[in-house]
TrEMBL record:
The gene is argD. Binds 1 pyridoxal phosphate per subunit. This is Acetylornithine aminotransferase. GO terms for cellular component: cytoplasm. Signal peptide: none annotated. May also have succinyldiaminopimelate aminotransferase activity, thus carrying out the corresponding step in lysine biosynthesis. One of its GO terms (molecular function) is pyridoxal phosphate binding. InterPro entries: Ac/SucOrn_transaminase_bac, AcOrn/SuccOrn_fam, Aminotrans_3, Aminotrans_3_PPA_site, Class-III_PLP-dep_AT, PyrdxlP-dep_Trfase, PyrdxlP-dep_Trfase_major, PyrdxlP-dep_Trfase_small. Keywords: Amino-acid biosynthesis, Aminotransferase, Arginine biosynthesis, Cytoplasm, Pyridoxal phosphate, Transferase. It is an enzyme of class 2 (transferase). It comes from Photobacterium swingsii. It catalyses: N(2)-acetyl-L-ornithine + 2-oxoglutarate = N-acetyl-L-glutamate 5-semialdehyde + L-glutamate.
Length: 405
């Protein structure tokens, strides 16, 4: 047998499309909220694979579900259904407003399904002219051509030729502008109930309430992209449940599989009738492996003590960051909810979020950014107090170095 080639970071540049610029370290194993690289160096994980590893790494309930299903059935196709998909769909309807579920493999695909459903519903029920989709500046909805166009960051969708049409971008949290613009031609408003990539921006109560009312007035569907906020991330199973506003369609992914690729679009029985046989599909969507893992994740995350624990952990982070900031004032505020938090840099530190990320990496801590001015934290929802304290100590060491440089 040939000797296994030693895998080095340089290999990335030789074999991978250069649309990413990964750090030099290559993690090889994880346990809970800790990760080890090839040199056995330990890192505390406050990133969670961008709000994905909601139970940390190699959580026993996930490992067990995967191993058990691996010996049974991996894939059929949607010519037949399967038990894990049906069990998972039932649980998602029990934990939300939804009555019907469509499974995909990613958040972008769940959003694609949501947008296609909204357009089809408007065409069926009203007219082909009712096709405008309103979304928000700095919003993020995925990387397929439709979802990236609906997302509110033109830099991600420019340069690929003509874009899907009839998409309007308005400022988030600006109800007056939305009220001015929306019309009976609007088929849907798509939004994150807490903007993630756009800088961890929470909606005001008036805005979120007003969006729902305007949708009702103009027969437009309200689509909540809960890819990043869903599955316990904000301390509710879905973020909408803490906002007192219910969408018509909801997309979920990221934390849903705890690291195994899966996405889902959730909606009502009435709306679901518009995706008749043949109107949409997915080869891998609803595959038994993904659904078995996601079912285990949902069972764990939906426990009242886990959801309550998210709110408790939010306070650990807020207090810890405030303590660091009292010594090394680089942050203006901490935004967000639950364990989707963003520490926004103050005026003197504008544009330096990535510096913080890299400095933290050198101290053995994984964090994220949301734009150039926000350091983002999306750790495991069950991270221990010990790991939070240790991670915050490493964050302080990183910030101290930058501050005193």
């Amino acid at each position: 047998m040939a000797m296994e080639q030693k895998v080095e970071r340089q290999l990335f540049d030789e074999v991978m499309v250069p649309c990413y610029s990964p750090m030099q370290i290559i993690p090889v194993k994880g346990q809970g909220a800790r990760v080890w690289d090839q040199n056995d160096r330990e890192y505390i994980d406050f990133a969670g694979g961008i709000a994905v590893s909601c139970l940390g790494h190699c959580h026993p309930v996930m490992v067990e579900a995967l191993k058990a299903q691996a010996d049974k059935l991996w894939h059929l196709s949607n010519v037949m259904t399967n038990e894990p998909a049906l069990r998972l769909a039932k649980k998602l309807t029990e934990h939300s407003f939804a009555e019907r579920v469509f499974f995909a493999n990613s958040g972008a695909e769940a959003n694609e399904a949501a947008l296609k459903l909204a357009r089809r519903y408007a065409a069926d029920r009203f007219s082909a002219d009712k096709s405008e989709i309103i979304a928000f500046k700095q919003g993020f909805h995925g990387r397929t051509f439709f979802t990236v166009t609906v997302g509110g960051q033109a830099a991600y969708s420019d340069g690929f030729g003509p874009k899907p049409g009839d998409v309007t971008h308005l400022p988030y949290n600006d109800l007056a502008t939305l009220a001015d613009h929306i019309s009976d031609r609007t088929c849907a408003i798509m939004m994150e109930p807490l903007q993630g990539e756009g800088g961890i921006i929470s909606p005001t109560p008036e805005f979120i309430q007003g969006v729902r009312e305007l949708c009702d007035k103009h027969n437009a569907l309200l689509i909540f992209d809960e890819v990043q906020t869903g599955n316990g991330r904000t301390g509710e199973f879905y973020a909408y449940q803490g906002l007192g506003v219910t969408p018509d369609i909801l997309s979920t992914a990221k934390s849903l599989g705890g690291g195994f690729p899966i996405g889902a679009m959730l909606t009502t029985a009435e709306l679901a009738t518009h995706l008749k046989i043949g109107t949409h599909g997915s080869t891998y969507g609803g595959n038994p492996l993904a659904c078995a893992v996601a079912e285990a994740v949902v069972d764990e995350v939906s426990k009242p003590e886990v959801l309550a624990g998210v709110k408790e952990r939010e306070q650990w982070f807020r207090e810890g960051i405030a303590t660091i900031n009292a010594k090394y004032p680089i942050f203006a505020e901490v935004r967000g909810k639950g364990l989707l938090l963003g520490a926004a840099l103050n005026d003197e530190w504008q544009g330096r979020a990535r510096d913080v990320l890299l400095a933290a990496g050198e101290e053995g801590l994984m964090v994220l950014v949301a734009g150039t001015n926000v350091v983002r934290f999306t750790p495991s929802l069950v991270i221990s107090k010990e790991d939070v304290d240790l991670g915050l100590a490493r964050l302080e060491a990183a910030i101290a170095k930058l501050y005193n440089a």
